Every structure is written in C-alpha cells, then in structure tokens.
C-alpha cells in the first residue's frame, strides 16, 4: 500500500459497497502518515458528489483515518466549537491517487457540548437491502458504533481537545 508523505496534498475518495464512487474531497494536506493512521487537514476544499454536484467546505477540518477501525472522523473547527462528523466505513486504503474507504451510510454527529447522535439508519437499512451487505459487515459496523461511542464519551483520540489543537496548528504551518 502506498502511504502519502507528510505535507503531501492528497484526495480523499469514498465509495459505496457496490464499488461506485460516492464522494471526493479534492485537496487535503497530510499531517501524519503511518501504516496505522493518516491525519489530514483541509479548509475550503472542493467536494464532488457522485452525481456531479460540487460544493466547497466552509471551515477548517482535521480528518482522521485508521487502518483497523471501521470509521473515520472529520473534526470541523467552527467559531462556536468543534463539530465531529464520523463516517462508519472500512478502514482506509491508499494509493498514489487518494486515501480511500467504503462508506456504509451510518454516521455519528458530535456537537461541541459532547452530545452525539447516530444518523442515517434508514439510508443504511435501504442500502443494506439493495447492495446486500453481508451480516458480518453489519456486525462489524454495529461493534464500531459502540467503539466510537466510547471514544466520544472518553474524549479519546480525535475527540480530545489536545488532538484538535495540535493537528490544527500543524495544518496552519503546512498549508
């Protein structure tokens, strides 16, 4: 597996279970890159949806990908605090083109006050039937919702204030 280098500009691509491209973030600066973790930062980056729609992110974000966990975390730095958007999906893979993962619809949104909500359960069930997600995938995803919930409650990893401060400072240095 190709690992991007620190300070390299990469794309992030999410796919669906059937292999179709879901979404592409065009420019993210690599802040850390190991076999286990990729951390990136972006701000006002172009995002292209599978249907061709385009939009630009509104705030700086720190992106966390892990090689073992079935989720990634986008921490958005806003004036009123840090919002985290957690995508349930495969551990990352990377090549010369992008950091990639399969998005499995379920998301957890975390608010600055620590409250969080599981989102898109209806979309998950619909796609689970349409794309025939195996029961093993469902068990893995449900387990990772639990892992992620504990991380949020314990303020572990991307949910730690120190994490955001450290990586946002590094992002400002590199951009």
UniProtKB/TrEMBL annotation:
The keyword Transport does not apply. Its EC number is 3.6.1.15, 3.6.1.6. Keywords: Hydrolase, Magnesium, Metal-binding. GO terms for molecular function: magnesium ion binding; nucleoside diphosphate phosphatase activity; ribonucleoside triphosphate phosphatase activity. Residues 18-155 form the DUF402 domain. The keyword Hydrolase applies. It catalyses: a ribonucleoside 5'-diphosphate + H2O = a ribonucleoside 5'-phosphate + phosphate + H(+); a ribonucleoside 5'-triphosphate + H2O = a ribonucleoside 5'-diphosphate + phosphate + H(+). Mg(2+) 1 binds at residues 87, 103, 107. Mg(2+) 2 binds at residues 105, 107, 120, 123. Coiled coil: none annotated. InterPro entries: DUF402, FomD-like_sf, Ntdp-like, SA1684. Has nucleoside phosphatase activity towards nucleoside triphosphates and nucleoside diphosphates. PANTHER family: PTHR39159, UPF0374 PROTEIN YGAC. This is Nucleoside triphosphate/diphosphate phosphatase.
